[in-house]
Amino acid sequence: MTTVFSKIISGELPGRFVWRDDSVVAFLTINPVTDGHVLVVPIAEVDQWQSIDPALWAHLTEVAQTVGAATATAFDAARMGLLIAGFEVPHVHLHVFPAHSMDEFDLSVAQSDPDPARLDEARTKIADALVAAGHSDKVPS
Fold first, then answer.
1. Which of 59, 74, 102, 118 is most buried per CB count within 10 Å?
2. Is 93 one of the annotated active-site residues of the chain?
3. Which is catalytic among the residues 37, 93, 95, 135?
């Protein structure tokens, strides 16, 4: 069965993308723990992170680092959070988000109905930071 992430990646469902290359995408989650919460997802449907091809895993984490650095700049974050959970969607994804305390490392406190304008603003800020860092070829318009 196709995952909700595959439907977002293919354009069947909307997404606020900040990164796209041949094997990995990054888009804002619709349930952020903080403004700027991004999911970094392989295009290939892999259920569990320990099953992913090592080369793809390396690239996935490299993209998470790059997106994390841009997000830290965009939101002036003291720290960047990184979580792997996988219970919500059976498709590997890394949660990358600005963190100000350990309380934010709890996905159960994620916003259930965030303001779409804030999500759009967060997407723009992260995309602008990625472009400024030299990654314009990976930032979808």
1. 74
2. yes
3. 93
